[in-house]
Structure formats: C-alpha cells, structure tokens
C-alpha cells in the first residue's frame, strides 16, 4: 500500500501549507495585501516552540499555545507598524513593504542567533501504526488532528462570533462596515492576529515533524502556501484549506512517480496555470466568502 | 589608426613578455640558490594553510598534525642530517590570498616544497604557481579531482594529495556492502545538487554492479529539502537490503530519521559528508544504529601505528584525540619527507618525480601508492554508529 503511505505523506505536508495559506488568504481578503512576511512569522513560531520545549521545558501543547500567542502579537505589531499607514497607498507600495518586513525579520533573527539550524527536541513519542502495510506515524496523525482542529476553530470564529462577523463585513465593504459602527482598525488587527497565530502553530508543527529549523526556513513554505492560497482562490478560507492539502498531495505524487527534482517546478506550474486559466482559483468568485 | 593601435598593443605585449621572462629567470635563480647551496642546514617546507577565515579549523588542524610530524622527524635526525623547517603562511580561507601566500613562500622563503591549502578551491588557486616555479605542492585534504588532473586529462605535474578523491569512497562503500553486509539489492538516494554526492553515487553504482549486486532503486533530493518521506517510501517499495546515501549531514540527519520512521531498518551508508555532531542531533542515536560511513581515518583504529600517533598527538595537544585533518597533515609531512629523502636532492623536479614514484608508503591514514593521476591508492576506514557515537568497524583496501 505504497499509495496510501504517499497519501499520508502528502496530507501531512499539505496540512502545514494549509495552515500558512489561511493567514495569506485572510489578510488578502480583508486588505488586499499579499503579506510576504507571513512565512517569517511561521519561522518565528517554529523558534518560539523550539525555545519553549528545549529551554523552558514546556510540553507540545503548551509550546503550541505560547507560540500562537506570541505570533499573534507579532502579527499585530507588524500590521500596526508597517502596513497601517500604507492603507491608502498603492498596492505595490504595500507589497514592497511586505517584502522589506520579511527580510527584516529574517536577518534580525540571523543577527541575534546566527544562521545555523537548530534541532527540535523530541517531545512526543512517535510510534508507527501499520495500516494495510503503510507505516503511518502517530506524529503525522497528531499533526493532521491539530491542523483540522485549528481549521474548525477558525470556521467557528469566522461564522459564529461577533469578531468573525465584523471581519466578514470589513472584507465585503470596509467603508460600509465603518458606517455601521464596526471598528475597522481593530478588525484588521484581529485578522492579522488570527492569521499569524495559525502560522505560529504551523511553525511548531513543522519543527516537531521535520526536526530541523533555521532562520530562512519560512521562504519556501511561505511561497508554497501562497500558491496554495491562489490555487484555492485567494480570499477564500475553505479554498486555502483545500488548496494546501491539494498542493501537498500533488507535490508528493510528482515525487512518488520518480520526478522528485520536478517537485517545486510542479508547484510553480500550478501557480502559472491557475493564474492564466482561472485567476479566481478553485473556489472562485461566486461562492467565495471573503474574510 | 588601426596600425598604430596594433603597434601599441604589440609593444605592450612584448613588454609583458620581457617582464615575465625576467621574473621567471629570477625565480629560477632563487630556486637554484636554495636548491644547490650546500651550506643550507635546514630543508624549508612551506605550509600554505587556512589559519583564519571560514574554514580556519581545517587549516589549523592540518598545521597541528604537520608540526608533530616535523618534530618527530627532526628528533630522529632529520633528512640526511638536515632538519626540516616548517614555514607557515595564512591564506585566510580565500583563493586570492592562497595565491599570494604561495608566492610569498616561493619567492621570499624559498621553500623546496609546500603543503597546499586544505580546501580544493584554495589549492587549485596555487597549482599554476607550483607548475611554473617547479615547486611540488601536496594538499592534505583537497579532494576535488581537478587539483591533480585538468579537464583535458593532462596531469598537473607538481600537484599531489595525501587524501583519497571523493569517488573512491563510493567504491569502498560498494565493496563494504557486498563483502561485509552481503547486500545484493541496493538502493541509492543522492543529493542531486552536489557534484560530491553525484560522483560518489556513480562510483558506488559501478562497483556494486561489478560485485554482482543490483541497484533496485535510485532516488534524488536537493540540498535544503526537509521532507524526504516520498522518495523513501518509493525506495521502501523496492525492498532493498542496503541504501547508499551520499550527501551532507544537514539533510542526511533528516533522511535517516524519516527512513527509520517509515520502517526502513536496513543498513544505511554514507561517506565523510556525514561526519558531524549535528548528524547525531538531527537523527538521534537510535535511528543511526546500523548505519556506516567511510572516512580517512579513525582514532579508534586499534592499529599500532595509529595508536602511537594518537598518543603522541595527545601528549602535545592537551589530551585532544586527533581528527582526520590532524592525521592527514601529519601524513602529508611524512609523504614529503619520504620523497625528499629518496630524491636525494632539494631540486623541485627531483622531489616531484620521487613523490610520483611513491610506493607502499605506510602512513597513519593508510598504506599508499601514488597512481598515474597523482592520487594515492590507499585504504579507507569504515565507521559504524553505535548509540550515537562513531565506532571503528574495519579497514577496506582498494580494489
């Protein structure tokens, strides 16, 4: 059952892409900005998790929670300091600022701790479970479980809470929302906080699953998550989840068919094809729910 | 106009020619002086090494080893009664500085031979000077084939090395797999972005097929990858009884860990690229059990000659066990000393011929004979990881 095994491999990496893609898509949905610093928030999350597990002796779930809180704060700070004053600037100016923030975070990290990689301590006992001949590690099941739980929580926040309602309203029409008495600034900050918390969670999960983290680790997963968000339809939350999973599985099967060197090329090919033929993504405009 | 320009150009070319000839002539004179003068009471050997900069630890390790060897030789009466004097120059781990350091050693210090830099790139930067000035150079650890052999297949007459070249480790691994582990169906998982790994994979494949084995699966990855589960799952489906993984420790650590998680419990093997404490951090001691690497040398080798060297080195260096670079630096001096002794002359050409004719020279990193391409044919050491530490396993002879 090699295919089952590959499917599990694909879904594991896909759920990490999906968690990061959610942040991209939420921020885009609300202020039409591709937040290229998002991958670096993911990196910070991985390091917070690393420090809390190895230096402060926290368990996996406390490390996950702490990392999400710190990343939420960092997300809000980034928005307040770098993006808020550019809200009425051209979109290209905001985009370039995002790239600047990304480089600032990466190299500040390198300045303080060096560029060498760190190794995640093993916190969770990892057992292989034999399912029809496929070795499914308990770790990948846990990762999948945590990711799905976080996505459900997000759906709940967006659809059932007051702040979720405000987020949907602002993304629909910021001016009208303001007239209705919604505090647009706070709503945007909340969006950044939630998106960044998810990226932080993805960082910890990545560290536990792949062991090795370094200050430039956010670049490739960040770009892949961006592709996942575009694939699903940027601005659409279910789109980001499906896009992430799909990208992970496609990449895995490209490698599995013996084209492992083409794996990244396949991801970018998907981006190009989507942008040419269906720029609105799989969950296109009609059914899209902007947040 | 055209004509004038031509004349000008020709004039400057001629000037360059004259200058070059005079410089060369001066060098030859100098060489003649140091080589021929009978009243010189020491034999000067240069050491053009990385003593600062990015790979300073390589260069200083080689220097420590070389100094021990020189101390021993001088205590035993030197070469034909003459003591060896080691003159070191720091090349700052940069190619241009390596050339400068070589020039300084040749022209100011008038050395008869040089220990070339630790890295292949820095060594290549000094090869031309060595050829032009007829000063033999020996790199202790430069493993790139193009140090001794040019792309067109011609041999650099004055360039030599003490270490084996990269692809040789692939051959050794194949012999070890076939003879010691009785592996028949092997798989290869190589870094597709590194010449080092590709070279090793190619020589491994050639040798394992020559040994009657079959390569049942070949997969590739790219440096900086973190997810290798897909390729490993593919390899697992082929049921190999041995997997060869040439590459560097940053990726290999993750590969070993993920392979064991996927239930691949066959022996895994790599080369000196695995040799780093980070590997053990990444993979964990348990996953690394039943993995092997080839290396130049092991301080745990019970061989008497090696243990004598380890003791002597520890006595001089505050009880630190010598690493592979120390051992190679030590051997490089003995390799040179042996050749100078046999050449019976301090003339660069004679030393070069003696180096090339070296046969069955017994050194710490193996007994070696120099082949037509100035590479030593020698044994390699196989180490096994046991609960997170390297343990000497065996020595594999070439062929």
TrEMBL record, chain A:
What protein is this chain from? ABC transporter permease
Assigned protein family: Belongs to the binding-protein-dependent transport system permease family. LivHM subfamily.
Question: How does the entry describe its membrane topology?
Answer: Multi-pass membrane protein
- The reply on keyword tRNA-binding is no
Question: Which Pfam families does the record match to this protein?
Answer: BPD_transp_2
The family database entries (CDD domains) matched by this protein are listed as: TM_PBP1_LivH_like
* Chain ranges passing through the membrane: 6-26, 33-53, 59-78, 90-112, 132-158, 188-210, 216-234, 265-284
Where found, per UniProt? Cell membrane
What is one GO biological process annotated to this record?
A: L-alanine transport
Protein keywords? Amino-acid transport, Cell inner membrane, Cell membrane, Membrane, Transmembrane, Transmembrane helix, Transport
Fetch the InterPro entries from UniProt: ABC_transp_permease, BCAA_transport_permease
- Taxonomically, which superkingdom? Bacteria
Q: Which GO terms describe its cellular component?
A: plasma membrane
Species assigned in the record: Caryophanon tenue
Q: What does the record give under GO molecular function?
A: L-isoleucine transmembrane transporter activity; L-leucine transmembrane transporter activity; L-phenylalanine transmembrane transporter activity; L-valine transmembrane transporter activity
TrEMBL record, chain B:
Q: Which residues form the signal peptide?
A: 1-25
PROSITE patterns per UniProt: PROKAR_LIPOPROTEIN
Q: Which CDD domains match?
A: PBP1_ABC_LivK_ligand_binding-like
A biological process from GO: amino acid transport
Q: Is Membrane there in the keyword field?
A: no
Classify the source by domain of life.
Bacteria
The alphabetical list of record keywords is: Amino-acid transport, Signal, Transport
Q: Where is the Leucine-binding protein domain?
A: 42-386
Whether Transport counts among this entry's keywords is yes
Q: Which family does it belong to?
A: Belongs to the leucine-binding protein family.
Q: What is this protein called?
A: Ethanolamine utilization protein EutJ
Origin species, per record, is: Caryophanon tenue
Q: What is the lineage of its organism?
A: Bacteria, Bacillati, Bacillota, Bacilli, Bacillales
């Amino acid at each position: 059952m090699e295919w089952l095994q590959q499917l599990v491999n694909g879904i594991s990496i896909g759920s990490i892409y999906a968690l990061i893609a959610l942040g991209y898509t939420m921020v885009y949905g609300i202020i039409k900005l591709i937040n290229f610093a998002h991958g670096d928030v993911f990196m910070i999350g991985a390091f917070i998790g690393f420090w809390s597990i190895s230096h402060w002796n926290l368990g996996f779930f406390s490390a996950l929670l702490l990392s999400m809180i710190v990343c939420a704060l960092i997300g809000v700070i980034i928005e307040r300091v770098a993006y808020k004053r550019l809200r009425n600037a051209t979109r290209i100016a905001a985009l370039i600022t995002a790239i600047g923030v990304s480089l600032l975070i990466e190299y500040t990290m390198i300045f303080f701790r060096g560029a060498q990689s760190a190794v995640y301590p093993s916190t969770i006992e990892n057992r292989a479970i034999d399912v029809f001949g496929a070795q499914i590690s308990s770790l990948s099941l846990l990762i999948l479980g945590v990711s799905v739980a976080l996505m459900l929580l997000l759906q709940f926040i967006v659809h059932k809470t007051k702040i979720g309602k405000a987020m949907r309203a602002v993304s629909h029409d910021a001016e009208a929302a303001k007239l209705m008495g919604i505090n647009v600034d706070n709503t945007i900050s909340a969006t950044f906080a939630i998106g960044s918390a998810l990226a932080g969670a993805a960082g910890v999960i990545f560290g536990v699953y792949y062991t090795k983290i370094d200050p430039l680790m956010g670049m490739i997963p960040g770009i892949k998550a961006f592709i996942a968000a575009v694939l699903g339809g940027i601005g659409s939350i279910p789109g980001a989840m499906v896009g992430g999973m799909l990208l992970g599985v496609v990449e895995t099967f490209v490698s599995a068919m013996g084209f492992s060197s083409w794996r990244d090329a396949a991801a970018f090919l998907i981006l190009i094809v989507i942008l040419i033929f269906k720029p609105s993504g799989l969950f296109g405009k009609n059914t899209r729910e902007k947040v | 106009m055209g004509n004038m320009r031509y004349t000008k150009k020709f004039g400057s070319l001629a000037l360059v020619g004259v200058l070059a000839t005079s410089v060369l002539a001066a060098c030859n004179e100098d060489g003649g002086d140091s080589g021929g003068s009978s009243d010189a009471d020491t034999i000067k050997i240069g050491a053009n090494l990385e003593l600062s900069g990015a790979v300073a630890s390589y260069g200083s390790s080689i220097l420590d080893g070389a100094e021990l060897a020189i101390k021993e030789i001088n205590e035993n009466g030197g070469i034909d009664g003459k003591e060896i004097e080691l003159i070191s120059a720091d090349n700052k781990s940069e190619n241009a500085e390596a050339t400068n350091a070589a020039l300084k050693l040749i022209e100011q210090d008038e050395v008869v031979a040089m220990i070339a830099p630790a890295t292949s790139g820095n060594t290549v930067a000094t090869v031309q000077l060595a050829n032009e000035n007829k000063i033999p150079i020996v790199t202790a650890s430069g493993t790139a084939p193009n140090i001794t052999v040019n792309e067109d297949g011609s041999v650099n007459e004055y360039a030599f090395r003490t270490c084996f070249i990269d692809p040789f480790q692939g051959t050794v691994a194949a012999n070890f797999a076939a003879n010691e582990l009785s592996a028949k169906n092997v798989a290869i998982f190589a870094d597709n972005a590194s010449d080092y790994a590709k070279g090793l994979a190619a020589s491994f494949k050639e040798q394992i097929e020559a040994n009657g084995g079959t390569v049942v699966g070949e997969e590739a990855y790219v440096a900086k990858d973190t997810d290798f589960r897909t390729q490993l799952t593919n390899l697992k489906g082929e049921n190999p009884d041995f997997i060869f993984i040439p590459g560097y420790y940053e990726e290999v650590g993750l590969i070993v860990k993920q392979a064991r998680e996927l239930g691949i419990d066959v022996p895994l093997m790599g080369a000196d690229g695995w040799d780093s404490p980070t590997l053990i951090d990444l993979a964990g001691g348990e996953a690394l059990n039943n993995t092997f690497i080839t290396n130049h040398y092991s301080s745990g080798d019970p061989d008497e000659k090696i243990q004598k060297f380890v003791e002597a080195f520890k006595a001089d260096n505050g009880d630190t066990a010598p690493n592979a670079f120390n051992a190679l630096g030590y051997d490089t001096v003995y390799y040179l000393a042996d050749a100078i002794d046999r050449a019976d002359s301090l003339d660069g050409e004679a030393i070069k011929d003696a180096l090339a004719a070296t046969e069955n020279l017994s050194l710490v990193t193996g007994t070696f004979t120099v082949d037509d391409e100035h590479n030593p044919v020698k044994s390699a050491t196989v180490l096994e990881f046991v609960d997170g530490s390297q343990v000497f396993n065996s020595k594999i002879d070439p062929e």
